[in-house]
């Protein structure tokens, strides 16, 4: 049944303490993220019981309401209309989580464009390889590649916005990274190249621009501020970008690419085991946000990220575990009827890589099935990593989707058929091990009997 966004937003607001308690409203692909003045005023139980709410995550003064893809965008828009944000002192987050939250604010808004352009790039590649529509493929290539060619500008804009600077100044300084004219500039004895440093260079450039701007604002007379502050910001941050940041960021970006390739080529099976097994706990802690700049750097540098297909195995392990719970409870009506209904409704989203409904509605409340789901993810990650050791790299041209939704975004070094087969094999392995481990060791019926049915 479709969720009414207005009704859901209106129901959530009083349960998080009302408009005066909400200091900021954002969202990612599945969660409504609220910063709160007093987190103690949130009614957790009532929030979880709301129709359409799939789960709740509390962390450092924030409340993350899991709503699912599509729905979260509509509910956020309605919620923002209901809330009048006022400056209220907020509890300080830990430095690590504060940084991760800022990084998410920079890169998460770029994901829709990455997905759309990635799918178009994949479609264009298929048409070129098949020799079809030769008159259309150059146009598709331009549409698909333009965003990635200028992604530094968007990163700079979002960075300045997130860190309190003027967004357009952040974008202007970051644009230097991709400007063709930098090829005439020599720094540290090396001639720069357009795009050197990629998104990390753009991030550093915009951070420097924001710092310079804030420094000027406190020192330049008001009458001259409109002229001097933008000029000094662009000049100082621009020169700093050319004669420092681009060189340093280029070295870091190259190291990230080399490290990712070495990790999978040398220790692929073990690396895949660890990454696939730990990704669900990272998501639970919000630490997966630290990977967003790495994914984006790899896509900008190599055309795809080799890490995402490995990490996507975690969601597949979750699907296998959920199916095992469903099968285990087939003879336990009415005790397991509510949980089986939750699984039936959440499984399609899980297959498409949206794991929150299954995590918060099924495996996490039961306890042990969450661990067996991680075992499934580890097995699938090891499968994909093993083939990377053989020289078959599987990558994704965009971040965000996983599960079956990642198929249109797959890319690699051995052709689409091989890449698709390896990824599909990894999914199948994760499904199978997640199911078998949960069925044999999940303690499903005991957990349901002891804890009651989640969500009931």
Structure, explained:
Strand 1 (22-27) and strand 2 form a beta hairpin. The two termini are 18 Å apart. The chain has helices spanning 5-15, 44-49, 71-82, 95-107, 111-130, 137-149, 151-162, 167-174, 198-217, 222-285, 292-302, 307-311, 313-328, 337-351, 356-366, 368-389, 416-441, 444-451, and strands at 22-27, 31-36, 55-59, 62-66, 186-187, 190-191, 394-396, 410-412. It folds into three domains: 5-93, Glucose permease domain IIB (Gyrase A, domain 2); 109-263, no CATH class; 303-451, no CATH class. Residues 85-90 have low confidence and may be disordered. The protein is globular. The chain is of the alpha+beta class. The longest helix has 64 residues, at 222-285. It contains 18 helices and eight strands. The strands form three sheets. The protein has a four-stranded antiparallel beta sheet. Strands 5-6 form a two-stranded antiparallel ribbon.
Topology overview:
Blueprint: H1 5-15, E1 22-27, E2 31-36, H2 44-49, E3 55-59, E4 62-66, H3 71-82, H4 95-107, H5 111-130, H6 137-149, H7 151-162, H8 167-174, E5 186-187, E6 190-191, H9 198-217, H10 222-285, H11 292-302, H12 307-311, H13 313-328, H14 337-351, H15 356-366, H16 368-389, E7 394-396, E8 410-412, H17 416-441, H18 444-451
Antiparallel strand pairs: 1-2, 2-4, 3-4, 5-6, 7-8
Helix pairs in contact: 1-3, 4-7, 5-6, 7-8, 7-9, 8-9, 8-10, 9-10, 10-11, 10-16, 13-14, 13-15, 13-16, 13-17, 14-15, 15-16, 16-17
Overall morphology: globular
Radius of gyration, CA atoms, in whole angstroms: 24 Å
Q: Which regions are unreliable across 5 or more consecutive residues at pLDDT < 50? A: 85-90
Number of strands: 8
